[in-house]
Request: fold
Amino acid sequence: MQLEQFYIPKIAHNSYLLGGGKSCAIIDPRRDVDLYIETAKKMGFNITHILETHLHADFISGHLDLAEKTGAKIYFPASANCQFEHQPLREGDKFEIDDISIEVLETPGHTPEHISYVITDNSRGKDPVILFSGDTLFVGDVGRPDIFPGKAKELASKLYDSLGKLKELPDFCEVLPTHGAGSLCGRSIGANRWSTIGYEKKYNEILQINPREKFITSLITEMPPVPDHFRRCSDINREGPELVKNLVNIKPLKPGQFKKIAQNNDSVIIDCRDYEAFGGQHILGSYNIDFKGNFPTFAGWIIPPEKKILLVTSGYQAIEEAVIWIRRVGLDNTVEFLEGGMPAWADSGFRTRHVYQVSSPELNEIRSKRRINILDVRMPSEYKAGHLEEALNIPVPDLRQDYTKLNQDDEYYLICSTGHRSSLGISILEQKGFKNLNNVSGGMTGMNNLGVEK
Reply:
């Protein structure tokens, strides 16, 4: 038996190749699937199985693309009611890949239809050696049960039972989850990319919570906000994502053409550049989702999926990367980009907007002389852990609605942990008519390093 793990940052997604003699399975594939095909070929395997643990909420899966390119069979939980050709799986189902046995456990809780795969390497023994736990059991955490409105308590109760089932596996059985640290599919996932049943039973604090009611309460209180695209991606994965080869190829537009299309109500601009570059000059009405930040999550969270997406980047390579990332979160209407970027826009004589960037020492000097409006756009848990005394907390996605709590004529200094999210917040407020906005470059990281009293 051979195992290969694939990791992509930002959404902290793990997928896997599980190989036997000549055949292999890909578990929970990402949407851009060529890497799996290339790796299998180098390792001497034919991809024959595509195993999905659940309907992924935070990304679009590559099961249809991989099946179309390899002829491999797709395996999905029966209760997912997928609308494409696949092998439905239920509790106790078993199948083999060469000398590997795979048994299915139904482990709902993170989602209603979740399953896990228990792997036995028959060439070495008869005990389970690997658990592909999907989003049921993470390193140091478990899958959040609050994605679907009105179902949190029900799913948390099912998760309690599912974890009890997993704890019956041998202590030496390796746990290979679909997400690592940074994913919003859990509350506080550990940095390691794998663990064991025994280690999690001993050190995963959530697995120690009893009785059931206490466990449920713990899992449905003080959870991070659920991004908009989580429910959308689940439905897309059930229906069957559009094949990547069928998506429209993105094309360049001269500034004049770009401006004309951008003025239509069915279009939206994403400026992927650094927040410093955005602050220097940008197109009014664009969203600044800095590629160096958590670009896919906030793109999926903020951008209306029905809109045609126009991109502003710092170069052609950045365009290609941005398109791959936003397609991973189900934003398939990426159609054009600004040829020549902002320099070409400025050369054409078109108007730009600017954002003043305030360093940590500058902000400290300003707030020592006069009272100012500081808007902290981090998540509530970050704000609670430490914030500037006078700062008002509105998480950046909530500014789309909660801007009404602010006075449009006032001046605001927006702050996050570094400057990425606060720049996104400024771009949202600009669309709502706000003009007196400043971005705190370095954010709370800079303020903490400066030793500012909070």
